[in-house]
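Q: Sequence in, structure out?
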Amino acid sequence: MTRTSNGTEVLEHSGTSLRMRKKDTIEPTVLDVELLRESLFDVQDEKKPLSLTTIPGSHKPSSPFKDAKRKHAGVKAVSTTSSAITFANASGLRLSFRNILNIENLTGLTSLVKLQLDNNIIHEIRGLDTLVNLTWLDLSYNNIRKISGLDNLTKLADLSLKNNQITIIEGMDNLVNLNVLSIGNNQIREYQKGIAYLRRFKHLRAVSLAGNPFCSDIDWQAHVLAYLRNLMFLDWVRIKDSDVTAAREQYQVELREIEEKERIEDSQQDAQQLESGEYQRLLKAHLKGVHMLWDDLVKEDTDLNKLRSLPGGEVKILIDDYHDKFYSIVEHMKGDVFLKLDAKQRERSKMENKKSEYLHATEAKSIEMIQSFEAGKKKTFRHLEKNRSSLREADLHGSIQPLKEDINRLHDELLSMELSQSEHFSSLNDEFEVAWGDIKNSVLDVIYNEFRMLEELENNFSEAVKKVATDALDRFTNEAVTADAEELTDDALALLHDRDQLFQAVSNSHENHIGKILSAEDAMREQEQQEFTLLVQDLQNKEFERNRERVLEVHRFTERTKQDLHGAETVFRSPAY
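A: Exactly. Output:
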């Protein structure tokens, strides 16, 4: 008798053989609309939501015996589903013990966050591509041989694959939010590569591996504790800090090489990110500081690192919860600010398009006017050249003087057009300044509101850490806790032996966090305001330079043309001509 990842006790030997017999003797169940509809449920209605503050793996699937009893009473197997739940808004789907062979027809369940498919006869993971909001997936007690079909489930936090036929830990590359993994009682014989693979999951806090063939190796647990840095539970038992320390000492040479390689890879990744479009977008939105804020908060927080060592691992849990909520607020802020950035770019494009259209129209008209003048000048010069032998002073004056009057008139018209264009461009700049200013103010509102949320989150976190510290100090005075003092790290003992040092660490960490949060807010507000000020100045300066260059261009053209006319007069008046 063993317990599933959901807490249900089953006969170990009957897991696979029973299912195989079911497949051989009973037609597999098809996931049709009726079955799906009766299996929907609202995750919020569950009494015990998954949390690492409780024992991992304690969630229970529906029981076939309870389903049978309800069916005998004339009630559907799953009848707790509210009539208001639809395929579009359903958050949970319970399909345990259904003799399901193929995962199919789940396309419309895009709001699903929890899916129970345990205790079936599934051979292959597929049909989950559209469930992009899934955070909890139970595929335990099936006949799965390979981990696959999970590429789109980037939000998945809890994955149970216990009691299958899996031989290799793989196929989870995109599960960047993986928090709990149950993969015990499979056919995994080689664990070193599998544990190295799991090292990539920075949020992994609980893993169950017991029951695999490799567990006959006496070093496998030490290997896991050494390589999976942030793990808190191994096979549902809380990990002791002393065991982690011993394991890391055992593998210190290998770990040193791996960590150095990871540092190099991180540096290369940072360098690539600097050149990436995403990073440039963060810079344009003034979000670089916000994007890196969590790392800045905890990177050199020696006081928080000491507090992590307090017994019970509660501070680590609080930090994980803090990180997730912090990340959620930051992502929400980034999303809002990116929308504002897009709005800014649209306003700028609209202004530039209007300027471009107006500029092209005035340039076309200016070219037409100049070409008309040049054509008249050329015609006059040909006439003078043709009649040069009989040309009199009066004829020369009568031909050149109209051109002089025309160039003066053309000069005034070109300057008048430029004046109109400059006024129009200034008006467009003013409109753009108002529109951009409104967006800027809305960004400042977002910054204020989101940073107040971060500040409140930090305050709540600090209060929670302070309570943990108080409780730890109280428990330390008990003989039972004192007797286990050898299990505590030196940092934990130092804090628990000195009350003032303990609460000073809490206070220092809090003040450090608040300071960095407020500094990041000030920097982002200043960048936003500075961008607006510089942009307005740049538009004014560019328009001034454009207008100045255009006026000078008209003057140069006019003076050059007048010189040409004066030269022509001299040539045609010369007897040598």
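The mean pLDDT is 83.
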